[in-house]
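Quiz preparation item.
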């Protein structure tokens, strides 16, 4: 009798699990659709034309909080720039902010030989639940004419605000960063856009560029 009861309990558990599996699958599908809806809503705020610095409109549907701009064994110094996007209080992390970033190659050039306007070192990130993003790439070079330090351009787009640029990321110690460039920073994106780079054991240069949303964006 006890054996039959155990068998009955076992079959009941199997039946319950079989019922739960499609339910869980449907939940996953719903979550994926919700994420896609987020991207669609955000892209409605992307600049569409007559904008040389924009790129949110070209974001793919499967955007992660991490992006890899460079191919394996790419010529140049491997670089990771990471950070967190915060509300205007500078403390509360913000998920689902679309970041578009791009930079020059090791010769200081953007697009060439049929590449996109902003070159091949570009990509998109959607901040995660903790507001985080990460770029894996190579360190860019200054423009060939030597009139600008090495830098990475950023735009931000959200459900509540249109695509806008923030102060570009530059690298502390670059001899082309003049007093005029420092004083000319607009403060867009908050925090410090001139970041310090550190060599780590993984072979990458690491830098942190945290971002603070503008008050009129939220």
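Solution:
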């Amino acid at each position: 009798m006890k054996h039959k009861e155990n068998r009955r309990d076992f079959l009941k558990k199997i039946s319950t699990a079989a019922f739960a599996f499609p339910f869980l699958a449907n939940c996953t599908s719903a979550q994926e659709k919700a994420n896609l809806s987020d991207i669609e809503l955000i892209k409605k705020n992307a600049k569409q034309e007559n904008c040389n610095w924009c790129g949110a409109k070209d974001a793919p549907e499967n955007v992660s909080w991490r992006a890899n701009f460079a191919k394996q064994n790419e010529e140049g110094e491997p670089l990771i720039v990471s950070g967190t996007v915060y509300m205007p209080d500078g403390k509360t992390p913000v998920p689902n902010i679309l970041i578009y970033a791009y930079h020059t190659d090791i010769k200081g050039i953007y697009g060439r030989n049929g590449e996109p306007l902003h070159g091949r070192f570009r990509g998109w990130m959607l901040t995660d639940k903790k507001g985080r993003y990460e770029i894996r790439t190579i360190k860019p070079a200054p423009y060939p004419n030597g009139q600008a330090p090495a830098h990475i351009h950023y735009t931000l787009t959200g459900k509540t605000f249109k695509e806008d640029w923030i102060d570009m990321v530059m690298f502390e110690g670059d001899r082309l960063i003049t007093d005029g460039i420092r004083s000319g920073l607009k403060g867009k994106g908050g925090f410090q856009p001139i970041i310090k780079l550190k060599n780590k054991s993984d072979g990458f240069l690491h830098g942190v560029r945290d971002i603070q949303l503008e008050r009129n964006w939220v």
